[in-house]
Design a protein that fits this description.
With 369 residues, this protein is mainly alpha-helical. It is built from 11 helices and 4 strands; from the N terminus they run αααββααααααββαα. The protein has a two-stranded antiparallel sheet. Strands 3-4 form a two-stranded antiparallel sheet. Strand 3 and strand 4 form a beta hairpin. The termini are far apart. 22% of the residues are buried.
């Protein structure tokens, strides 16, 4: 179903930049519909299935009890690129729906400034995504018992077989962060904001794809759930702050959890890669078997994690310093206003007293009489 756009008095030329931006959700919906219609015909169904359904499944038969049971697991492969592309289209459509039917309506009621408007849209979109991803990822962690038994993060590496939910989770994550690249164009992002957004989009893509390809999917899932929870708290706090600037308690909670999250991320990474995989019996490099447990890969993974955490801490410190400086300036401005009000009252009082003090004795007699 197409997504309605706001009617304007002037219609842009067909296939112009403005036309594509205004109608990008409808265009992408039509492209996605082509793949769905392809499932209806036998000739195209094999091609369409590669885009819509999860590929590279492996069926394992187990003899538990008198009956045989089959379990479906999944690996990563080249066909995943087609599936990621399709769910990137789905992410663009969902982005447009949230923007059109939720965020734009709130913006009309609140009348935000241009700066707050862009930040509100960013936090609104990311809050919805982080909430969905955190809930989904946490359910996978509970169902697979990764939290109750942390040894499973490195035990029996390489983890080439994934359950359906875990593989679908990674496909959706990669699709979402890939969709963020064309959204920079669709949302008319300011030039000064593009480098900042490109940096964190590429960081997400590199780390998620790295964990997926190197078969560190269990560690990646735990770290993503932890990171998404902290980021969810920040963006929810910012949405609350935009509704009422006096409510800043959420930022304090986020600051504490942010530092703890960085420490926990480093600890789990060093424990899994630096100790668990380093002491594992299955050492060596084997692309066909999905084994990347060699010293170079382990050092590269730990270096990437440490660099990212240090980069995030640096941004965090700059953010906190800016907030404290703005808070100090606001407090000093309030004090000046209070002092100026006090001085004006004193000047008025002194002026009245001065008039009475300069009254002549005669005039005082006349006033008394």
């Amino acid at each position: 179903m197409g997504i309605r756009k706001k009617t304007t008095n002037k219609n842009p030329p067909v296939m112009s930049h403005e036309f594509v931006i205004q109608n990008h959700a409808d265009i992408v919906s039509c492209v996605a519909m082509v793949f769905l219609l392809g499932l209806m015909f036998e000739i195209t169904s094999k091609f369409a299935v590669c885009f819509i359904t999860i590929q590279h499944n492996v069926t394992i038969t187990t003899n538990e009890g008198p009956e045989q049971t089959t379990i479906n697991h999944f690996q990563h492969g080249i066909k995943d690129l087609a599936t990621i592309f399709f769910y990137m289209l789905v992410a663009i459509i969902m982005h447009a729906i949230i923007q059109e039917y939720v965020l734009d309506k709130i913006n009309k009621k609140k009348h935000f400034s241009k700066t707050k408007h862009s930040k509100f849209n960013e936090s609104g979109q990311l809050s919805a995504f982080y909430l969905f991803s955190f809930s989904w990822g946490a359910s996978i962690l509970v169902s697979e018992n990764f939290l109750s038994n942390p040894v499973t993060l490195w035990e029996d590496y390489p983890h080439i077989l994934m359950p359906f939910q875990m593989k679908f989770f990674y496909i959706c994550q990669l699709g979402y962060w890939l969709h963020a690249l064309p959204e920079l164009y669709f949302q008319k992002t300011k030039k000064e904001d593009i480098p900042r957004q490109l940096v964190y989009i590429l960081l997400y893509l590199v780390h998620i794809a790295g964990a997926y390809i190197l078969n560190l999917n269990r560690l990646g899932l735990v770290l993503l759930v932890l990171h998404y929870f902290v980021e969810l708290l920040f963006h929810v706090s910012r949405l609350i702050y935009f509704s009422n600037e006096n409510r800043q308690m959420g930022f304090t909670m986020w600051a504490v959890l942010f530092v703890l999250g960085r420490l926990l991320t480093l600890s789990l990474s060093v424990l899994t890669v630096g100790f668990g995989l380093a002491n594992a019996e299955n050492q060596g490099f084997d692309w066909a078997a999905g084994n990347f447990n060699i010293l170079f890969v382990r050092i590269t993974v730990l270096a990437a994690v440490c660099f990212t955490q240090a980069f995030m801490m640096l941004k965090f410190i700059k953010f906190q310093l800016r907030r404290w400086r703005e808070h100090a300036e606001a407090q000093s401005l309030k004090k000046k206003q209070v002092i100026n009000k006090g001085k004006s009252k004193k000047d008025k009082a002194n002026g009245v007293n001065g008039v009475h003090a300069h009254d002549s004795p005669r005039s005082r007699k006349e006033k008394s009489s």
